[in-house]
Amino acid sequence: MLKLIWLGLKVKWQECREFVYVLWRFRSCQTFLSGYCLLAALYLFSSPYTVSRRYLKWINADDVYSYGETPLTSLAEIADRTGIHAEDHVFELGAGSGFTALWLSLVKGCRVTAIEWVPGFVYRLNWVVRVLKLSGIEVRCEDYLKASLENATVIYLFASNLDDLIVNELAERLAALPLGTRIVTVSYPLQPYIERPVFALVDQFEVCFPWGRADVYVQEVISGQNIL
Ligand SMILES: C[S@@+](CC[C@H](N)C(=O)[O-])C[C@H]1O[C@@H](n2cnc3c(N)ncnc32)[C@H](O)[C@@H]1O
Question: Judging by beta carbons within 10 Å of its beta carbon (0-12, 13-18, 19+), is residue 166 exposed, middle or buried?
């Protein structure tokens, strides 16, 4: 119990530090700062962890504490190493609270499709998109195992707690993306989950997450059915 409280306090401290740091580091991007503060305000009385936990309880999930977020400072590192640029169309599979989608759209300037199945997340991000009239972000309340991934040039997937069978299913879907599509995954690469050689590992590096450092894998689709 004490360990859990300590972990909770540590995460809260890191979040506050990250919040201030993000405000400082991206201070030149006014629209992003407006979106960031608006979205943060919507989580003032119900944190993303609470929103996720409520949903997972409602669907009777085995583990209701499985939520986590990519710190924006780590996302900036990932985007640089992956070579994400303004011409990309990034599909975020499981967009969570939406801060990452906002950052990708408003700081990196790329088109973003944020797919998330927790209505509480989708509602909040959509509200910010509407209020600020952001045209570069589409938010979809969908299951990413079924959603259309048409036009994606980059996929971002941070889902460390997925069952192997689900990763298998996802790997099969992603194998059908057009050649050259970059897929960024946190904690595991996709190739071991599929028998034929479909994904080439382009880069692998570590970045910081609230619980410690994790491996990030950048892979590219090199063959497959390519008929999404
Ligand atoms: C670990 S969080 C990552 C959030 C965000 N991408 C980030 O990096 O900060 C994973 C998110 O995926 C969502 N998720 C899990 N399975 C999903 C599915 N099948 N379809 C849509 N969203 C899903 C969860 O609700 C959660 O918000």
Answer: middle
Protein residue with its CA nearest to atom 9 in ligand 1? 69
Give the residue from 35, 30, 26 showing the smallest Cα distance to 131: 35
pLDDT tens figures, 91-111? 999 999 999 999 999 999 999
**pLDDT value of position 6:** 86
Q: What is the mean pLDDT of residues 177-183?
A: 97
pTM: 0.94
Domain count, the chain: 1
Q: Which domain holds residue 49?
A: 2-221
Assigned domain for 51 exists: yes
Residues with CB under 6 A from ligand 1: 52, 67-70, 92, 94-96, 100, 115-118, 121, 143-145, 158-159
